[in-house]
Amino acid sequence: MTHDTVLVFSKTWGAVYLLVVFLLAALWVYWPSHKKTYDDAAQSPLSNEEIKR
Q1: Would the pTM of this model clear 0.70, i.e. be above it?
Q2: From CA 34, how far away is CA 20, in angstroms rounded?
């Protein structure tokens, strides 16, 4: 394998890998069953309650 071959391979499949990771993260965040978790997190700076862990 030459350096150019490795470079093309890593650029192509690296971009595909990052796209897949981004799409999975976006699906995870916007999945309907996670809505309450993120709504609570969005409101937490506005509340005076202790953080529950």
Answers
A1: no
A2: 20
Tokens matching residue 40 = 């609570």
Are 44 and 51 a contacting pair, CB within 8 Å? yes
Tokens of 1: 């394998």
Under 8 Å between Cβ of 53 and 44: no
Q: Contact, 38 vs 29, CB < 8 A?
A: yes
Is residue 4 a contact partner of residue 13, using CB atoms and an 8 Å limit? no
Tell me the residue length of the chain: 53
Single out the residue of 45, 42, 41, 43 nearest to residue 53, CA to CA: 41
pLDDT digits (tens, 9 = 90+) for 17-50: 999 999 999 999 999 999 999 888 888 877 776 6
